[in-house]
Amino acid sequence: MLVPLIVACALFMENMDSTVLSTSLPLIAQDLGESPITLKLALTTYLISLAVFIPVSGWIADRFGTRNVFRTAIGVFVLGSICCGISTHLPELVIARFVQGVGGAMMVPVGRLALLKSVEKRDMVRALNYLTIPALVGPVLGPPLGGFITTYWHWRWIFFINIPIGVLGFILATKFIPDLYEDEVPPLDVKGFLLSGFGLSILMLGLSTIGRHLIPTPLALGLVALGAALLAAYLRHAKGLDHPLLRLDLFRIPTFRAGVAGGTLFRIGVGATPFLLPLMLQLGFGMTPLESGALTFISAAGAMFMKTLSLRILRRWGFRRVLMTNALIASATIGGYGLFTGQTSHLVILGTLLFGGCFRSLQFTSLNAISYADVPGHRMSQATSLASVAQQVSLTLGITIGAAVLQTSSWLHGRDHVAAADFPWAFLVVGLIAVSSTISIARLARDAGSELAQRT
């Protein structure tokens, strides 16, 4: 239990930071003189940084040891948090968030790698639960804490609270995280790192700036095309290498392919929710950040509750049946958020968010576990890097697609600002994308992941 709980300390800090920022976004935008939709760059820049540096995190951990890399990553994340707290303009905040992302790219994936290398496969689901249950305290505390700080104090303190958490994580990691190395580490695929890093960052920057943002729309579309071309060049480059940075041949493993491909589509829908929901409650319904956070925290509370039942559910029904059924339910709840109005009872909102949080949590646990069910131990670092990249790309796409639907709806209605009527369309679109994850999951074998679910 000790290693996952220490890694959870880092994941708690990362989750706390993101949920607090989402809740405080409208008032931060007002203070910096920007629109809330434009300020989504502060969210997507962090995800872009993760997408750039996560691919190399596995190689760095194998080369320099999990403990050294994990501790350094915590330090970089805390440094980025301090820079965010002292930012006075949007470009400064965006750069500081990028620095945070460099730390986050090494912090959580390397911690997860240390965990996966330390447990037997039959204990993997339980170990992942030990990791995520404490980490979900961040999303539980984040929305009300962010609302309280923003309403009664100052938004800058939402970044400074990472300092004591980071210090604690550094001390615990020094004492207890195993320093795992690989005996033979192949040379770093520098060309692959440059192609994938620049390709992912340029693609995601272009997607996040389409519309009325920092750069003209034609330039944003050009960035999307350039990023896609660089990624295509990486695919050609990787085919001729024995040790590419991202091992795409891992997708030949059916369980890994289903977990990552299905998880990417599902996370697009889920990734848009923390961005859309606070905006709808505050801009659409006129709530304060504190009132909004006091409602949205319940989703993470439901997720914590479901983590205690996930292994029993998987043991009873198996991965394929759980993933298929649960994807339909969880996606329906995402689309259902768009049915909220300013007159909807707070009890109804709380109940719906609690219900949705439970089923999204079960889906994440199942997807994360099935992805590594059949990955050999010596491939685990490459698998965690590739899966983490896919997760961050999907979360960025979720925010981008949600914002694009909001802007399109307001434009079609002849408005230059987002209104409550625009949010149902956004939730409907991302909910439909999430439900499409069942296409990949349906191809799983009926007994997939039996050892993980302890069904033998």
From TrEMBL:
Mind telling me which Gene3D superfamilies this protein's record contains?
MFS general substrate transporter like domains, Multidrug resistance protein D
Q: Which SUPFAM superfamilies match?
A: MFS general substrate transporter
Carries keyword Transmembrane? Answer: yes
According to the entry, every stretch annotated as the Major facilitator superfamily (MFS) profile domain falls at 3-449
Q: Name one Pfam family in it.
A: MFS_1
Identify the domain of life: Bacteria
Q: Which InterPro entries match?
A: MFS, MFS_dom, MFS_trans_sf
Compartment annotation: Membrane
GO-annotated molecular function: transmembrane transporter activity
Q: How does it sit in the membrane?
A: Multi-pass membrane protein
Has the keyword Chloroplast been applied to this entry?
Answer: no
What are the TM regions of this chain, as residue ranges?
38-61, 68-88, 94-115, 127-149, 155-173, 193-211, 217-235, 256-281, 293-310, 322-340, 425-445
Which cellular component appears as one GO term in the record? Answer: plasma membrane
Alphabetical keyword list: Membrane, Transmembrane, Transmembrane helix
PANTHER family, per this entry? Answer: MAJOR FACILITATOR SUPERFAMILY, TRANSPORT PROTEIN HSRA-RELATED
State the name under which the record lists this protein.
MFS transporter
Q: Which organism is it from?
A: Pandoraea faecigallinarum
